[in-house]
Design brief:
Layout (H helix, E strand, L loop, with lengths): L7 H74 L3 H34 L4 H36 L3 H88 L13 H77 L4 H30 L1 H9 L1 H23 L8 H19 L12
Helix pairs in contact: 1-2, 1-3, 1-4, 2-3, 3-4, 4-5, 5-6, 5-8, 6-7, 6-9, 8-9
């Protein structure tokens, strides 16, 4: 599997596996070195030290043998003059023989240790132990030869041949010194082996410490490098997601989110692309709804414009009618002025009629201004069109009465009562016309 396609979990698992494997390798190497060190320590404890001890003991026994031989030789010479020394001679002779047996036992133990060591260890160690074992065999042979010479001296002493015994004693002394020197040399060789083994143990311990420290350093370095690599990959994926979110946060939903990361970051990229597509669909739907609403508003605006044009026409018609009513009112005022000469009552009523007409004109002008300011007033004007019609009927009646007054001949004294009745009728109509509501009229029928 490519590292680019590994999930965060897989990367962390690989990281743990690498670190654990490294620790296992280090632990195995340390265990191997500890085992080797343990073998060296065990060899020193179970082989070198017992061999040194046994060889030192054998050298001591050899020294005791030489002392016992020297005493026995002196007691044998003194027994020639005084028989009481014969017992001492025999005791020292027995001690010499028993001590010789002990020396043989120690040499056999050393041989066992060296033979076992020659089968183990490195090739160099096996070679050294074989050479030491060979020297040990030579030491045992020399010791046997020295004991044989001592036995010859004892035979000569038992035979009373002091001169022969003394000659043999000189040879025994020289061989004893040589045997002691050879035993000391062998002891030093074994001590050198032991010292080298101890130094080797110390070197292995130091090497083990260096290896442990180096392994810990390498493990930490590998852990840091792998963790930085894993974090870099995680940050790369998160930066891609962050960049895609930044583009969408700025309102640009046209860029497609690339899904090229595995695991949970890939899921984030997938969810982010799904969010972008859903947002685009929602925006498209909102745009369609807004377009439909704009179309509806345009239709409503056209309808309002049409209604406004129609209402403007109606207002013009009403204005025309009002103008006509104003002309009629002026004509009535003129007729009233003419009738003033006929009677003071008719004159007063005519003035009242002129005032009423002036108020009607003013109210009509206010009505026109109210109509132009509010479309709602048009609706109310439509409701009150019947009242305007009644006003027009009143104006029409006034006009007819005015025309009637024009056509009437001058009043005769006997006709004044009927003329007064006509004036009262005209005033009643004027009151009705004046009480008409000041609201926009409906569209007048042709």
């Amino acid at each position: 599997m490519s590292s680019q396609k590994m999930t965060i979990k897989q990367r962390l698992t690989l990281f743990v596996a690498v670190v654990v494997s490294l620790q296992v390798v280090v632990a195995a190497f340390v265990f191997f070195k500890l085992s080797s060190t343990e073998n060296h320590i065990k060899g020193v404890a179970e082989r070198d030290i017992p061999a040194i001890t046994a060889l030192a003991q054998s050298v001591e026994y050899q020294l005791q043998q030489r002392i016992a031989y020297n005493r026995a030789f002196r007691f044998a010479i003194e027994a020639q003059a005084d028989p009481k020394y014969t017992g001492r001679y025999e005791a020292q002779k027995s001690e010499f023989l028993s001590t010789g047996e002990k020396v043989g036992e120690q040499l056999q133990n050393i041989e066992q240790f060296l033979s076992a060591a020659a089968l183990k260890g490195s090739p160099e160690e096996q070679q050294m132990f074989k050479q030491t074992n060979t020297k040990l065999g030579e030491l045992a042979q020399r010791h046997s030869q020295w004991e044989a010479k001592v036995q010859e001296a004892f035979v000569a002493l038992n035979a009373g041949n002091i001169a022969q015994a003394e000659a043999i004693d000189e040879t025994i002394g020289a061989e004893g010194e040589s045997l002691s020197l050879y035993a000391d040399q062998l002891l030093r060789d074994i001590e050198v082996f032991t010292e080298e083994a101890v130094h080797s143990i110390e070197a292995q311990a130091v090497l083990l410490e260096v290896i442990v420290v180096a392994a810990a350093f390498v493990a930490a370095l590998v852990s840091i490098v792998i963790s930085r690599i894993i974090l870099a990959r995680i940050y790369d994926g998160l930066n891609k997601v962050s960049d895609a979110l930044h583009v969408q946060a700025e309102g640009d939903f046209s860029h497609v989110t690339v899904i090229d990361e595995p695991g949970i970051i890939g899921e984030l990229q997938k969810n982010l692309e799904g969010t972008r597509q859903s947002t685009n669909k929602m925006i498209a739907k909102v745009a369609q709804d807004v377009s439909a609403a704009i179309a509806v508003l345009e239709q409503a605006a056209d309808a309002v414009k049409f209604n406004s044009d129609a209402q403007s026409g109606e207002i013009m018609q009403v204005a025309t009618a009002v103008n006509e009513m104003s002309a009629t009112a002026q004509e009535i005022a003129s007729n009233a002025s003419q009738t003033q000469q006929a009677t003071e009552e008719a004159s007063g009523k005519s003035s009242e009629c002129q005032r009423v007409n002036s108020e009607a004109v003013s109210q009509t002008q206010r009505l026109i201004e109210s109509l132009t300011q509010s479309s709602a007033a048009l609706t109310e004007l439509e409701k009150n069109s019947a009242n305007i019609t009644s006003v027009l009927d009143v104006i029409k009646g006034i006009a007819e009465q005015t025309n009637l007054l024009r056509s009437m001949p001058p009043l005769k004294p006997r006709e004044r009562v009927s003329r007064g009745v006509a004036l009262r009728w005209w005033l009643m109509k004027s009151v009705v016309w004046r009480s008409a509501p000041m609201t926009p009229p409906r569209k007048l029928k042709p």
